[in-house]
Design a protein that fits this description.
Layout lengths: L1 H19 L5 H14 L6 E5 L5 H8 L3 E6 L2 H10 L5 E5 L13 E7 L9 H10 E12 L8 E3 L5 E4 L8 E5 L5 E5 L2 H10 L3 E6 L5 H6 L12 E7 L2
Helix pairs in contact: 1-4
The chain binds S-adenosylmethionine.
C-alpha cells in the first residue's frame, strides 16, 4: 500500500506541478495564506518542508531567508523541483516520510507539511518523528483538505447554486482514489485523529484555521463564492514542549 501511494505521485508529478502553478491556483492560495500567516517571519529559521512536491513553497521560504531542507518520496517531483525551484539555501532529499527520518534530534525550528498528511497511510510515526527533529520549542504547521467536507459533493438548488453538502460516513477511516491530476490515493481520517497524533507525540495544538479565499480572490472568481460557506481546508499549528 505504501509503495503504491508513492508511485502514483511519480506518474502525476508533471501535471500536478503545472496545475499547482507555483501555489497560484485557486485552492492553493486559500491554505497558503493561512500557512504563511502562521509561519510569520522565517528569516534565519531552519525549516523542513515535508512532502515538498515540486518545491515551489520550499523556494519561497528560502527566498524569505530560511534555511530549507525539502523532502519528498517522489523522484519525479524532486526532478522538477531541482530544475524549477533552486536556491543556495535550499536542499532536496528523497525520503519516505512514513519511515524514520535520517535527521538528528532537534535539527529544525519549523516543520511545514502542505497537503501531505491525508496522502499518507499512517500519520502517527511521522508526527512522532516531527516532534523528534524539532527543537524545543519548535513549530509544526500543516495543511490538509478538510476531513469533514472534502469527500462529499455539493448539492445544487434549482438555479444550479451550490447550497449544501451531505455528510455520510465521516468517522469511517478509509482510502479513496482521487483523479485531480491522474490517480492518487487519499487516506480519509476524522479531524480528531490528527489532533490525537499531535497529543500522542507530546506536542500541543496552538492554532487551528479553516481558511476561506481572500476577498480579492473571490472578486476574480465570483462563481467560487461557495468556498466561503464551507471550508475546503484545515491548517493546524502545533508546538513542541
Ligand atoms: C498534494 S502533494 C503536495 C506537495 C506540496 N507540499 C504542495 O503543497 O504542492 C503531496 C506530496 O506528498 C508526497 N508524498 C506522498 N507520500 C509521501 C511519503 N510517504 N513520503 C514523502 N512524501 C510523500 C508526494 O510525492 C507529493 O509530492
Amino acid at each position: 500500500m505504501r509503495a503504491n501511494s508513492i508511485n502514483h505521485w511519480d506518474i502525476v508529478a508533471e501535471t500536478y506541478s503545472e496545475k499547482n502553478n507555483r501555489g497560484r491556483n485557486f485552492n492553493s492560495q486559500i491554505y497558503l495564506a493561512a500557512v504563511n500567516e502562521l509561519l510569520g517571519n522565517v528569516k534565519g529559521k531552519r525549516i523542513l518542508d515535508a512532502g515538498c512536491g515540486d518545491g515551489f513553497f520550499s523556494l519561497e521560504l528560502a527566498q524569505k531567508g530560511a534555511l530549507v531542507t525539502a523532502v519528498d518520496s517522489s523522484e519525479a517531483m524532486l526532478d522538477i523541483a531541482k530544475h524549477k525551484h533552486v536556491h543556495d539555501n535550499l536542499q532536496y532529499y528523497n525520503m519516505d516520510l512514513t519511515r524514520k527520518l535520517t535527521f538528528e534530534d532537534k535539527s529544525f525550528d519549523i516543520v511545514v507539511a502542505n497537503m501531505l498528511l491525508m496522502d499518507i497511510p499512517e500519520i502517527e510515526s511521522l508526527v512522532f518523528e516531527v516532534d523528534r527533529v524539532l527543537k524545543k520549542p519548535g513549530t509544526f504547521i500543516f495543511s490538509i483538505t478538510h476531513p469533514c467536507f472534502f469527500l462529499s459533493d455539493w448539492e445544487e438548488n434549482e438555479n444550479n447554486i451550490k447550497t449544501y453538502k451531505k455528510i455520510g460516513n465521516y468517522l469511517e477511516e478509509r482510502v479513496e482514489e482521487l483523479n485531480f491530476w491522474g490517480k492518487t490515493l487519499h487516506y480519509h481520517r476524522p479531524l480528531s485523529r490528527y489532533i490525537e497524533a499531535i497529543e500522542k507525540a507530546g506536542m500541543y495544538v496552538s492554532s487551528l484555521r479553516e481558511p476561506v479565499p481572500p476577498r480579492e480572490l473571490i472578486e476574480l472568481c465570483p462563481e467560487k463564492e461557495y468556498h466561503c460557506r464551507i471550508p475546503s481546508f484545515v491548517v493546524i499549528m502545533a508546538k513542541t514542549v
